[in-house]
Automatic annotation (TrEMBL):
Cited Gene3D superfamilies: NAD(P)-binding Rossmann-like Domain
InterPro entries: 3Beta_OHSteriod_DH/Estase, NAD(P)-bd_dom_sf, NAD(P)_dehydrat-like
Taxonomic source organism: Lithohypha guttulata
Keywords: Oxidoreductase, Signal
Signal peptide: 1-22
Domain 3-beta hydroxysteroid dehydrogenase/isomerase per the UniProt entry, residue ranges: 70-355
Record keyword Heme present: no
Top-rank taxon, per record: Eukaryota
Protein name: 3-beta hydroxysteroid dehydrogenase/isomerase domain-containing protein
């Protein structure tokens, strides 16, 4: 009996070693697409350049349109950059309106007295009132563009129990914005979608004879999903499912006859950037955490700067408005376009190198390696605990899971542990998207803002 137990234990340990090895290295197909790691000298030189001569993005913002603009989520990272870019290219501040639950913090928004209306996007009456609120006389007759950037973002949930909050904001909130935009006679509506709608959940436990788990590497041109109507189980998380449903709503609302042109921009994959302290920026999130044990050093993925995402929205607007700057051969209405940085995908380890090399000495960061399997196995137990507390009322008194540990659930692994590479060829060819910010440049700019904040006592 003891011999059987020892033999079984040995086989289990051998299999776990095999499973950990399979998900702790990158397939050759992914590796050949990733750019080489940056040296510390390259990182420091990029930092110096970003401080002394940052890229001028104005040539990438397309022409001034003389339109009105409503930006839902304009206090956030992407929405904030859309507003900033509209101001940079010369749009009238009186013709810009921000709708968000939280007030904007960007300096240029306050300096230009941009109208801010606080609302919950899931409240249809509040949304309608915000859209129909009076505009200044000199802009009230201008055509209206809506950029819809509001979303409830949490990659930890995959059980249907959690769907209501995602549906409330991401699906019903989008419906509310669409209806209000149509009633306000908007002619263009562009929504921020997500490249995660195209990800197939991987399997982390391969057969003993398999080298790689299923779907551990995915190459997805334009982040195109097979369908926008798949069941929840086909997506990596409730968030991805809800964003797919929201994208379908936006794209099917496109109607050339009624002059209501719509479409979506899919940031691919992890968004980062500076401009406003926001946990949605992966650079800011890591910097504020400090120590972040990680199993992702080898994982290959695209990253996309928030300014590039904003420019994707402006490119799409330009194409839908049939501007002379939009050199297109097809009608882009009712489509979804992935946007990425103009540089190749990188490993998370490259991001960690930038942050740890440049961060202010008083706020050090570290990314100690932890074997993937040691985090994956407990994630199922944590998810079980969370669901048990939610579903069984007699144990609802158990403490809630909060803080960074709440991220250690299977849905999070579905989003970040696989190697996924997107392309933005369609956005460049069909809507004239050009991204000015490379990944290294964007990373060092984000660290630079963090360091200035530390030195300024923020």
């Amino acid at each position: 009996m003891l011999l059987w137990l020892c033999g079984g234990g040995f086989l289990l340990l051998a299999y776990l070693w095999h499973a950990n090895r399979a998900i702790s290295t990158a397939p050759a197909e992914a590796t050949k697409l990733a750019q080489k790691p940056w040296t510390k000298d390259e990182i420091r030189e990029a930092y110096r350049k970003a401080q002394t001569s940052p890229t001028d993005v104005k040539p990438y913002l397309f022409s001034k349109k003389n339109r009105r603009y409503i930006v839902t989520g304009g206090s956030g990272l992407v929405g904030g950059w859309i507003v900033a870019h509209l101001l940079i290219r010369g749009e009238d501040p009186a013709a810009i309106r921000i709708l968000d639950l939280s007030p904007p913090k960007r300096k240029e928004i306050a300096e230009n007295n941009i109208t801010y209306i606080q609302l919950d996007i899931s409240d249809p009456e509040a949304v309608q009132a915000a859209f129909t609120s009076a505009w200044p006389d000199h802009v009230k007759s201008l055509p209206l563009t809506v950029f819809h950037c509001v979303a409830y973002i949490n990659a930890c949930d995959r059980a249907p129990d959690f769907l209501p909050i995602y549906e409330k904001v991401n699906i019903h909130g989008t419906e509310n914005v669409l209806h209000a935009a149509q009633r306000a006679h908007a002619s263009i509506l562009i929504a921020t979608s997500s490249a995660s709608i195209s990800i197939k959940p991987p399997t982390y436990f391969p057969w003993p004879w398999q080298r790689w788990p299923k779907n551990i590497y995915q190459f997805i041109p334009n982040a195109d999903p097979a369908t926008l109507d798949a069941p929840l189980s086909s997506y990596g998380s409730c968030y991805a499912y809800s964003k797919a449903r929201a994208e379908r709503l936006v794209r099917t609302a496109n109607n050339l006859q009624s002059n209501f042109r719509t479409g979506t921009i899919r940031p691919g994959h992890a968004i980062y950037g500076h401009g406003v302290p926001n946990p949605s920026s992966i650079t800011y999130d890591y910097l504020r955490r400090g120590d972040s044990p990680s199993w992702l050093h080898h994982v290959i993925s695209n990253f996309v700067n928030a300014q590039n995402v904003s420019i994707g929205h402006l490119a799409y607007e330009d194409a839908l408005a049939k501007s002379p700057n939009a050199h297109i051969d097809i009608d882009p209405g009712g489509r979804g376009y992935c946007v990425t940085d103009p540089t190749p995908p990188i490993t998370y380890g490259a991001l960690y190198d930038v942050l740890s090399t440049l961060v202010h000495p008083s706020t050090p960061v570290s990314f100690p390696y932890v074997p993937h399997i040691l985090m994956l196995l407990p994630s199922y137990l944590l998810e079980t605990y969370v669901l048990l507390r939610l579903r069984v009322r007699y144990v609802s008194w158990l403490p809630r899971v909060t803080g960074n540990i709440a991220y250690v659930q299977p849905a999070m692994f579905n989003m970040c542990t696989l190697h996924v590479v997107y392309t933005d060829d369609k956005a460049r060819a069909e809507i004239g998207y050009r991204a000015p910010i490379g990944t290294l440049e964007g990373f060092v700019a984000a660290v630079g803002e963090w360091n200035r904040g530390v030195e300024g006592g923020q």
